[in-house]
Amino acid sequence: MKFNGFRHLREGAKGLVRNGWMTFASVSAVTVTLLLVGIFAMLMFNVNKISDNVEKDVEIQVFVEREADQTKIDSVGDSLKQLPGVASVRYSSKEEELDRFKEQLGEGSEAYRSVEKDNPLHDRYIVKATSPKETETLANSIEKMENIDSVEYGKAYVKKMFNFLEGVRIGGIIL
Known about the structure:
The chain is of the alpha+beta class. About 65% of the residues lie in helices and about 15% in strands. The protein folds into two domains: about 1-35, no CATH class; about 60-175, Alpha-Beta Plaits (2-Layer Sandwich). It has helices spanning about 5-20, 20-55, 70-80, 95-105, 110-115, 135-145, 155-175; strands at about 60-65, 85-90, 125-130, 150. Strands 2-3-1-4 form a four-stranded antiparallel beta sheet. The protein is elongated and about 100 Å long.
C-alpha cells in the first residue's frame, strides 16, 4: 500500500485555485464574522468593567450636626460601622473640609475668607454600601439616626444610573 497523502493536498490546492472567488468569499465571511464577535465581546467586557467601577464609586455622605461635640461625632461613626450593609466608613473633620474647600476655591477668594473666620462646615462621614444597590435603603436608615443633619447620595441619579447600566448589560448580552 502506497501513501498518497500529498495527493489530497494537491487536489485541495487545485480546487482553491479553480474556485478562487468562492474561496475568497468564504474566507472573508468567516473573517468578518469573527471580527464582529471579537468587537462585541471587547465592548461588553469594557462596558461591564466601567459599570462595575461606577457602581463601586457610589457613596453616601453623612453630615453630622454642627453643634455636636466630639463624643457625639464618634458615636455616630460607631453607629454607622455597626449598620448592616456598610462596607466602609471614612471620617472627615470640619477642618479637613475647610482645607478641601480652600483647595477648590483658593485662599484668595472672597468665599474662603468669609468661611475661614467661623467654620460653618459640617463634620462628615463617607459611607460605602456592601452592595451599591442597597445605597438607598442604607441612606434611609442613616437619616433616622441621631445627630445627623443631612444625608446625600445623589438620590435622583443613583436609581436612574443603576437602571441604565442594567439596560446596557442586557443589551450587550442580546447583541
